[in-house]
Design goal:
Length: 312
């Protein structure tokens, strides 16, 4: 990688995002680091976002490039990300979702981390959960990645972050990765439809198992919160556990192909799969004791023998 002024390939995938696409693109143009190319990947849009993207590519032919699948097909977010990666000319790749925005220092700040830590292949940063875009009275909050700032080696983050552990996972718009690493850590195209909710987790588990990662406590991306998002829809329709089980089963198969035996990862995976694969045993050994413990605590509080403190 040219450590002075490397070309950064920005991959922006979109599907019917005419309302937000221009704002997202403008945040890329607003970067204080200017050596980038923008790959606009159309996942079969039927609204005005196709013409908007083509217009950007026509107006800035040396900076912006329009891509779509054969026959203008809708193939899902992972396939679209992979199409963008396949056409990327840069030695570094960054992702921005079509409804998110970057702050002006996003690219320059993360490049500075690569210069300081040349052995790092991937950078993850905190994200601002952006609610005030629709209602100024709502508070925005920065959610850090659920691990302290610093360098992590495989498979440390797999043991620390969601979906196997409790630490908050990064948002795609906060990720920067060296293109050479994307040969090992690519996106899984089977995560479509409601399973697309976990497409970034399928990618990130490969990152955690294969790459040296820097976790940054800084936030240079705004993650737009929308009631119509896929995550909201999956939860609203009661499909969260179907999606989670699909991912866990896929990850179990993937883990069996990895040459290194990650015993601690396997242990956490087995624990996560237990409610689905052994529901009776899980209820008796985990859910029931947890329920009894909570019930006893509530009785003690009612009797004045225990003080209850909210932790949120």
């Amino acid at each position: 990688m040219n450590t002075d002024r490397p070309l950064i390939s920005v991959v922006l995938c979109f599907y019917n995002e005419e309302k937000f696409l221009a704002e997202s693109v403008q945040s890329v143009f607003g970067q204080d680091y200017e050596n980038w190319e923008l790959l606009l990947v159309d996942d079969g849009s039927s609204d005005k976002s196709t013409m908007m993207a083509l217009s950007f590519a026509d107006e800035f032919p040396e900076k912006v490039f329009y891509l779509d699948h054969a026959g203008h097909a809708n193939r899902g977010l992972s396939a679209s990300r992979n199409l963008g990666i396949a056409n990327a000319q840069g030695s570094v790749v960054a992702f921005i979702d079509a409804d998110d925005v970057w702050l002006p220092q996003k690219l320059s700040y993360q490049l500075g981390i690569f210069r300081k830590f040349p052995n790092v292949a991937v950078i993850l940063e905190a994200s601002e959960y952006w609610r005030s875009w629709v209602n100024p009275d709502q508070h925005d909050i920065v959610i850090p990645v659920g691990a302290r700032e610093g360098v992590y080696f495989p498979p440390e983050l797999m043991l620390t972050l969601y979906p196997l552990a409790k630490g908050a996972a990064p948002c795609p718009s906060g990720i920067m990765i060296k293109k050479s690493s994307l040969k090992r850590s690519y996106f899984e195209e089977s995560f479509r439809g409601m399973y697309q909710m976990y497409e970034d987790q399928a990618f990130l588990c490969k990152v955690y198992l294969n790459e040296t990662v820097f976790v940054s406590g800084e936030s240079h991306n705004r993650y737009r919160q929308r009631p119509s998002s896929l995550v909201s829809s999956v939860h609203h329709d009661g499909n969260y556990h179907n999606v989670r089980r699909y991912y866990l089963d896929w990850f179990s198969d993937y883990l069996s192909t990895v040459p290194v035996q990650h015993k601690n990862v396997r242990r956490l995976l087995d624990k996560a799969r237990a409610p689905y694969n052994q529901p009776v045993i899980h209820r008796l050994t985990v859910a029931l004791p947890r329920f009894i413990k909570g019930l006893v605590a509530r009785v003690f509080v009612k009797l004045g023998l225990l003080t209850y403190h909210k932790t949120w």
